[in-house]
């Protein structure tokens, strides 16, 4: 794959990444998984990564690893960024409306629900929280795997909140695009409230970089959702990755999978700016 150096001049928003800074924000003693070494990176360090690749903004996601529901590091990074960052927080299902309003004022645009990690039953009581997110025009960000979305989709369809699906839905790759979970994801494109992140290929590919076994899924998502409902993300700093991942190589891989310059501009820039309000305070 020949490098396309024009991509570095293209304005971009990275829509899924993490800041982990245990030197300033220590993990709780009972933290189940404690990212270390190359899995960590401060807000200042990540800003340099973005500069090196021509990325102007980023949507920071509170990591379940390390911090769980402790959003201090996330909020500090957003404040340091002075408009460069927005965030997705991790919150309990009983998070009240005033807390959500306060977080929204600090740059939080949604709440993460990690079904892939915790399972469907863990979130059985999130209906009222989804209603509060809908009332504030915030996102319910969902990370699922395999066929979980087949069971979850009816709840998302009826919740009223905007939905943000992580990592292409992390499909069961052997099932192809007709697998129940992925088929349910494609159907969500029709509600106009769902956006999918073209990211995390290493989480479901079986062939490794450049993830040729995921191309059919990427094309199906682009066809169903269109560039106005798709965004790009790196997943930096690649928590729990079982093989080497590099920011620039992942950027190149997706850029070259896009059919034309207008699609690229929409997915890398116009769509995330519109959805997450970058440059709007």
SSE diagram, text form:
Elements: E1 12-17, H1 43-52, E2 55-61, H2 64-67, H3 72-81, E3 85-89, H4 97-105, E4 108-114, H5 115-118, H6 127-135, E5 139-143, H7 148-157, E6 162-165, H8 180-188, E7 194-198, H9 215-225, E8 230-232, H10 247-255, H11 261-276
Parallel strand pairs: 1-2, 2-3, 3-4, 4-5, 5-6, 6-7, 7-8
Helix pairs in contact: 7-8
Task: Describe the structure in your own words.
Helix content is 36%, strand content 15%. With 281 residues, the protein is an alpha/beta fold. The chain has one domain (12-276): Metal-dependent hydrolases (TIM Barrel, Alpha-Beta Barrel). Helix 4 links the parallel strand 3 (85-89) and strand 4 (108-114). It is globular and about 45 Å long.
Strand segment tally: 8
The CATH architecture assignment turns out to be Alpha-Beta Barrel
Helix amount:
25-40%
Number of domains: 1
Q: Give the biggest beta sheet.
A: 8 strands, parallel
SS field, number of helical segments: 11
Mean pLDDT across every amino acid position: 95
- What overall geometry do the principal axes of the alpha carbons give? globular
Main structural class: alpha/beta
Distance between the termini: 39 Å
Low-confidence stretches: none
Gyration radius from CA atoms, angstroms: 17 Å
Biggest sheet, spatial arrangement of strands: 1-2-3-4-5-6-7-8
CATH topology: TIM Barrel
Estimate the strand proportion. Answer: 5-15%
CATH class: Alpha Beta
Give helix and strand order, one letter per element, not per position. EHEHHEHEHHEHEHEHEHH
Provide the CATH superfamily: Metal-dependent hydrolases
